[in-house]
Amino acid sequence: KEGTILTVARVVAEEVEREARRTSDLQTLMNVVIESGDAILKKTPEMLPVLKQAGVVDSGGKGLMVFFAGFRAALFGEPVEDVSLENLQPMPGEFVDDHDSLEEITFAYCTEFIVSHPRPDMKESDVARLRRRLEKIGDCVLVIGDLEVVKVHVHTNEPGKALQMALELGELDSIKIDNMLEEFRERQKKREADAAKEDKPFAIVAVALGDGLASLFKDLGVDKVVDGGQTMNPSIEDLVEAIDSTHAKEVFVLPNNSNIILAAQQAAELTERKVYVLPTKSVPMGLSAAIAFSESATGEENEAAMREAAEMVHTASITYAVRDTVFDGMDIHQGDIMGMIDNKINCLGHDVAEVARELMDKMVTEDSELISIYYGADTAEADAQALFEEAQEKYPNCDVEVHMGGQPLYYYLIAVQ
To answer: pLDDT digit string (tens) for 275-290?
Structure first.
């Protein structure tokens, strides 16, 4: 849609292409990137009504411009705005080296250590010189710290030489040397073993965030649960990896969030397996779809049954407002408890339990049969139990159940079907 990150990217590309016909100066072109991007970003609220109602610009477009601003600052040798040097320097021990991402090994030994007691006369130029020397005998060089402690990481075929170089700066501590060739061989064995597995006919992949929700999906036979949900969408690559890891010929994907459905559809196109993406917009819809799955049915029959089961579910979600805004004609203030039904704001309040009761009153009808309450990480079990008992008493014609969902941000997810 116009007004999203795609619009910002398109306009920037068009303006830069136009300017590139007149100049090849990179600094000039980067200025065009920032100017054109910021200009169109300011217009995004006029393109998408939902942005105008909330009084914000598109978050994806804003994020893209943050990247571009960083590129420009680096190119011009300018400091990055609002980021202190302290925040830019990782502390020793926080660097994570992902060996699994390496497809081939040029330098065999991952070598890490700390110069914990530098020489009193050590200077910053000595640290810079160590970095340059290490770059000559390896790659993935990381030398960070100050004149009190220096953290070193390097991939090299000469770990002894790396240690010897660093000894010129002071005492060494926390020395760790991993043989990445051996790690690579182990990964290859696992890949070959996985490839040799005979594909099973069906599998289910679900997206959910929260230990309780993940356990519920696994109890229903879901093969792979991908972390994700509101504010934390999995990447297309994450979804492709999850689909392929099932080793199934046909895979059902439950996105469980309207923002993830498109990514799931794109992931489906990037795998050789037959993938059915169910348009589940909430976790309760996904759980209902998973229950409807049958090993004895065909893929098409399962898709129809799971889709029908999901569409029978109405979901209420309860969270809080992080800022003042006006949305759908409602004046929302920071800290308000917001109640939504099927992702649309339905009521506001100041008490979580009261909002939950109001939402159930609006959702439960004479045709309703089941009420499922999933309480989040910020909700006490005793409060959830009290709400469960109230619902049992108030809606005697419905089966009521309560589960620990463990989801962040949302006090409750309540499903009625």
So the answer is: 999 999 999 999 999 9
